[in-house]
Amino acid sequence: MTIASIDVGTNTVLLLIAEVDSFTRKLIPLHNEYRMPRIGQGTKQTGIISDERLNMLFDVLKEYKSIINGYNCEKVILTGTNAFRMAKNTPEITEEIKYLFDYQLNVVSGEEEAEYAYYGAISDIVANSFSTVIDIGGSSTEIIIGEGKRILARKSLQLGSVSSSELILKSSPPNKSEIENLKKEIKKLFSSIDHKNVPLKVIAIAGTATTLACMKSGLKEFEEDRVDKSIITIEDMKNIIGELFPLTPAEILERYGPVMRGREDIIFAGALILYQFMEHFGIENVEVSTRGIRYGAIVNYLTELN
Fold first, then answer.
1. pTM of the shown model
2. What are the residues whose beta carbons fall under 8 Å from the beta carbon of 174, sequence distance 6 or more?
3. How many domains does the chain have?
4. Where are the alpha helices (DSSP H) in 41-192?
5. Does residue 117 form part of some domain?
6. CA dist., res. 203 & res. 129, Å (int)
7. What digits encode the pLDDT tens for the residues 64-107?
8. What is the model's pLDDT at position 155?
9. Do 168 and 270 reside in the same domain of the chain?
10. b/e per residue, 61-89, with b = 16+ CB within 10 A?
11. Got the DSSP string for 254-304?
């Protein structure tokens, strides 16, 4: 069975086309694409997803539909996350997507998003172990704790790389008082999670983590084989934040290259969230996974088939 899974996030729209082994249910990725239309830009302030951003989303979906048709996929899964949960015009958008593309947009709750993130992150892990998965998105951050395929706890925190950049880090580069304000906000959110429940084995997924992994390795272009399963230490994070702190978005893009395009104005906020997470919970290093919600959506679909 060949399945296409599209994850429409606040900042990115990710496509996975995977072959599913009918006996083991193992996911074999055939094709991955990512685009950054940032559909959630301004949504926390206005309460809607703007027409401009919707047109950008529709352009991406049109491109993706052409790719999907080339693989003769038997199922297309379209998952919407926090931007759609916030936006008052989501029902109209859902209807328009159905009309234009014949896709059913599934807007998941914060808890469901956390589940998808977790199951996606562990979808290629064989051994059962206690793990924490952190998914730093554009407008929310999911933290999920589990043992093997069993989720023990999950939390969806209303702060992400886009929302914290828009609402708190308004200067370019951010000034010290803005950074302190963001640190306080992050700590307040993390304090709602019991330290004792957080396993020290941490898997970081989504664009912030994969971009930071590229920065650490000196990659100007994304290389999945080098990013997946790579390790970022808390010392790496200190160094990265020190490098990013004095730079404008234009300088960040110039220094780190195409891998940063579309993320140059939000990467500092995302990096600060990850660093504060590691510091708050005493995490020495995280493993970066290129898998995430789009993989978890397929796992969830297969589970519902049973």
1. 0.88
2. 182, 245, 268
3. 2
4. 43-46, 51-70, 82-86, 90-101, 110-121, 161-167, 176-190
5. no
6. 12
7. 999 999 999 999 999 999 899 999 999 999 999 999 999 999 99
8. 87
9. yes
10. beebbeebeeeebeebbbbbbbbbbbbeb
11. HHH-GGGTTTTTTHHHHHHHHHHHHHHHT--EEEE-S--HHHHHHHHHHHH
- CA distances, 148 to each of 29, 124, 191 (Å): 21, 11, 25
The answer to whether residues 276 and 234 touch, using CB atoms and an 8 Å cutoff, is: no
Asked if the model's pLDDT at residue 125 lies above 90, the reply is: no
H or E element, residue 225: helix 224-227
Q: Are residues 102 and 65 in the same domain?
A: yes
Which token pair is 1?
């069975």
Chain centroid to Cα 141, Å, comes to 8
105 and 129 assigned to the same domain: no
Q: Are 70 and 50 in contact (CB under 8 A)?
A: no
pLDDT in tens, 140-198: 899 999 988 889 988 889 899 988 998 999 898 999 999 999 999 999 999 888 767 77
Return the percentage of the chain with pLDDT > 70, whole number: 99
Q: Model confidence over 268-287: pLDDT tens digits?
A: 999 999 999 999 999 999 99
Last residue in a domain, options 80, 110, 140:
110
Taking the C-alpha atoms of residue 161 and residue 267, their distance in angstroms, rounded to an integer, is 7
Q: Mark whether 274 and 190 lie in a shared domain.
A: yes
**pLDDT band at residue 303, thresholds of 50, 70 and 90?**
confident
